[in-house]
Amino acid sequence: MPKSAGRSGAAHPMTVNETVIALIRPKPDLDQLTEQPAEAQAAARAAVDASDGIGTLTSYATEVAFPVKGTWKNPAIGSARADVVLTAPEAGLPLLFIEADNCTEGAALIAAKFDKYARFFKQKEKDADGIDKPMWRTRWSAPGCDEYERVHPPALLVFHQVGKRSAKSQIAKVADLNRPHRQGRWQSQAPEHGRIASRGCLPSHAASRCVVPHRSAARRAGRRSRPRLAVFLSVVRTLKGR
């Protein structure tokens, strides 16, 4: 279990745990299940035969502060905390931020967290080489500017259908509220001519329930430079790894 993800019995920390487990997809030991009911053995065999997950427990950190001011250890009031940060370059995911929701919070509250993300991405500090860099780059490694500075590192929202709000409705509402952060801006001297400027965008995707992305889908989420907010209703099966 990732550090701090299950430090209480509250629903949200357990949702974070379930999200991480769904992404890792641990494989059961079939030799340990020989005396279990046939249904349990069949389910375990299906899990073994399923595609591999993403990373290991050490690939995931939880409740990571994104300082809008202050330091990593002492972030200022108003800073965001990512539910999960995934670093799995061996799986094609050098950096992915994950937010998990139980469908209990209002869409505006969820979307407001990305306002804090945007403020965090503007922060810079001097790295060990004496050069000012985006603050996040002093902590994590990622591809060069064409991938991760012109467009910020991606975020994945996972909606677990626990609360009374509809996951599908939540995805749509957050997508609309989050539009300024995830889409480029039209730059033009005339309405019929111009281009989309994607600098500073925050690529964001959404998934419902806890069957979240296959390795290929999450990898692509981290590589698209100007993605739309996709709706994943059961598993992310439409995106194939590049």
Written description of the protein model:
The protein has helices at residues 11-24, 38-49, 107-121, 145-148, 167-177, 179-182, 215-223; strands at 60-66, 80-88, 93-101, 124-126, 132-134, 155-159, 185-190, 193-197, 204-208, 231-232. The chain is α/β, with parallel strands linked by helices and 242 residues long. It has a 6-stranded mixed beta sheet with strand order 1-2-3-6-9-10.
What are the salient characteristics of this protein?
single chain, 6-stranded mixed sheet, 7 helices, disordered C terminus, two-stranded antiparallel sheet, globular, alpha/beta, 242 residues
Briefly, what is this?
The protein is an alpha/beta fold.
Low-confidence stretches: 4-9, 192-198, 210-242
Query: What topology, given as strand order, has the largest sheet?
Result: 1-2-3-6-9-10
- The helix fraction, in percent, is 25-40%
Number of helices: 7
| Strand proportion | 15-25%
- Main beta-sheet annotation: 6 strands, mixed
What is the CA-based Rg, rounded?
19 Å
The shape, in one word, is globular
Mean pLDDT: 75
Q: What is the strand tally?
A: 10
**Element string (H = helix, E = strand):** HHEEEHEEHEHHEEEHE
